[in-house]
Design brief:
The structure is a homodimer. By secondary structure, chain A is an alpha+beta fold. Chain A folds into 2 domains: 148 residues, 60s Ribosomal Protein L30, Chain: A; 161 residues, Alpha-Beta Complex (Phosphoribosyl-aminoimidazole Synthetase, Chain A, domain 2). Chain A is built from 10 helices and 12 strands. Chains A and B meet through helix 1, strand 2, strand 3, helix 2 and strand 4 of A and helix 1, strand 2, strand 3, helix 2 and strand 4 of B. Strand 2 of chain A pairs antiparallel with strand 3 of chain B, so a sheet runs across the interface.
């Protein structure tokens, strides 16, 4: 219905586009029928339950085409849902991709987007098994569903945190928020921080290692900020938490950038979203095992607080004073 | 990021909206963890393979808010993907729903949309297990994924048609196309035809009956028009087909409406999309069994042609002359 310029999608047509997209798709023995029938047919591993997560990304809401190169956008579109499967301790397996394409989108953009999407898929042993394509009258819309699997006893939910458990996070926090801040304000910042925003890495191997060792009592990925995301663990576990600000893991680039800012650095680390690190809780007797387990995956892990029996999540400065939140994570309807 | 008017979504917030959406959700023993964690956890029935399909619906591309009441839109958003699972002979089981909501959308619209979506879910024993919500700067976007299951030997693909098989369709064809034509041209038409467009019924029980009896050699749902959709069966089965125009099942309302049109009625029945009837092929020795099997589901079935060994799909008038296609189904990028 939307008229696309003759140089791009019109010539190719819907089925030409689907062929182009599916040309680079790898397969796997778990995929019985992939792209091309009414539905994909897949087979779960014996004894495993299915994990499913979905994310929608809209141009000018979740990303801007002037900031986000198509290759990284393809990677990030898939990374967000893979991260959700990882946060349950699951093996990501299969993906669906739906695209609504505006008329001014060059074919090169789609090719580069797909290269990024399929590279992220391949790095995580995920197979693209289906999707939908249509024209859009305005924004580019990307909708991704990822399905995974895990043995029932290894699945890690948000609801298992116990008072006295430690609160841990992988990697470093706040980098993606600084990346966003610098892009929004046109400031110069290290590529590392921009990449954390535009091309995040889902922590699949660390999450699987924790799940297989039975070490995490609850887990979530940090997509809306640590305070908000640990808040979900606290709410669903019926507990509270105290975050120790001095223990937050901050990258060197983060510390250099925030040294000159009028805003407290911890704001970005506590309330900035899109780091896609793991936040998990674990029994305090498992500290050494956890450090060992995560370091084997080549990433850092930091103990940042403690699960409390009283409700409410607080962040505490070294001098004992409370951090007053300037935002409680990203809310789409605020 | 998008600013929504204070009377609608802003007050509610993202998590308030999710609570509102999930309030009416039923569950099922196959759903271990539904809405509210990083990913949903579900369990397949013993020995079954998973079926997955996804559809994206954009305002002013797939639907118009001035035509489509929110209740029917909710129903149709889910019906399209359920129909895909049915067309594989599968049991639809679980759904994911992602919504990008424009700022002018009243809460009543969302409530009515969800009532329709959940009514369609309930009628088909489908459970809503997750999704995503965000704000949209322009169009309403709906993305639905439906997962289902079936025993491997009962799954019906597009690829099994054999030369000499009959071609069958359920119900009547072209009604939705007439509904669309009348809305686009402001013509008066019976409610029945409008409803076929706005609130189609996926043929789940008929498809399951065919799959369980092992009667269909290939199957697809008619979403892009019979010529285009049977064309997919022909292509994937490495066969052709001859459709007998005189045998196309046409509703009384369709025949009354098209009697006065300058366009041949068969155009709507052959090339009009969105009827969501089943098109399937079957061995000619199974004719009586098929009629018996489908009639038990309370719908009609008609034999409309024959699978040929030579490639190419043709439609033939009673006098033997060929139908020259005026369109070959809906192509989003034409």
């Amino acid at each position: 219905m939307t008229h696309l310029s003759s140089s791009t999608l019109t010539k190719l047509g819907e089925f030409g586009l689907i062929s182009r997209i599916s040309a680079g798709v790898c397969t796997h023995e778990s995929v019985i029928t992939g792209i091309g029938d009414d539905a994909a047919v897949t087979e779960l591993s014996s004894g495993m339950q299915m994990l499913t997560s979905t994310d929608m990304l809209l141009e000018d809401v979740h990303f801007r085409r002037c900031w986000h190169d198509p290759y990284s956008l393809g990677r990030k579109s898939l990374a967000a849902s893979i991260s959700d499967i990882a946060a349950m301790g699951g093996f990501p397996r299969w993906a669906l991709l739906s695209l609504a394409l505006p008329s001014d989108l060059p074919l090169d953009f789609i090719d580069d987007f797909m290269r990024g999407f399929l590279a992220m898929a391949s790095e995580n042993q995920v197979v693209l098994i289906g999707g939908d394509t249509c024209s859009s009258r305005s924004a580019l819309v990307v909708s991704v569903t990822v399905m995974g699997e895990q043995l029932p006893e290894r699945i890690v939910r948000r609801s298992g945190a116990m008072p006295g458990d430690d609160i841990w996070v992988t990697g470093t926090l706040g980098d993606a928020a600084i990346g966003l801040e610098s892009l929004e304000n046109g400031k110069t910042v290290s590529d590392e921080l921009i990449l954390r925003l535009l091309d995040p890495t889902p922590r699949v191997s660390a999450a699987l290692a924790l799940a297989e060792a039975g070490l995490a009592t609850a887990m979530i990925d940090v997509s809306d900020g640590l305070m908000a995301d640990y808040g979900h663990i606290a709410e669903q576990s019926g507990v509270g938490g105290r975050i120790l600000i001095a223990d937050l893991p901050l990258s060197d680039s983060f510390q250099r950038y925030t040294a000159d800012l009028p805003i407290l650095p911890c704001h970005f680390a506590l309330s900035g979203g899109e780091d896609y690190e793991l936040c998990f809780t674990a029994n305090s007797s498992d500290r050494e095992k956890i450090i060992d387990c995560i370091k084997k995956c080549g990433i850092e892990v930091a103990r940042v607080g403690i699960v409390t029996s009283c409700s409410g999540v607080t962040a505490v400065h070294r001098d004992g004073s409370l951090y007053i939140a300037q935002a409680d994570g990203f809310n789409h309807f605020k």
